[in-house]
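Readers of this paper often ask what the protein records in our data store actually look like. Such a record has a labelled line for the sequence and another for the backbone structure tokens. Nothing more is needed to write down the fold, since each code stands for a local backbone conformation. The remainder of this section carries one protein's record, kept here as part of the documentation.
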Amino acid sequence: MFANGDPLLQLELFEMSEIRKVPGYDSPNPMVRAHGPGPEGASCRECAHLYGKRYNRIYYKCGLRGDTNGPGTDHRVRWSACARYEEG
């Protein structure tokens, strides 16, 4: 059991501490919020860090974000690329 008894609060605090926000960027991509935008017109689909995990469908993940084996680290291929973008 967690110290305050609320596992969702603990998860929220963990996720918030992992992502540092770059001022002025409000993007659905947590990597853009953390590192700033990447090259103009580039998307995560072309990035070397993107990989897919195949189960009953493909769940895309960013190798720079980590992988919790859950929906919290699912990554959208159409998101705008972040500053850590590497053509792959």
Observations:
- Residues 6-17 have pLDDT under 50 and may be disordered.
- The beta strands are 50-54, 58-62.
- The radius of gyration is 14 Å.
- The helical segments are 7-18, 30-35.
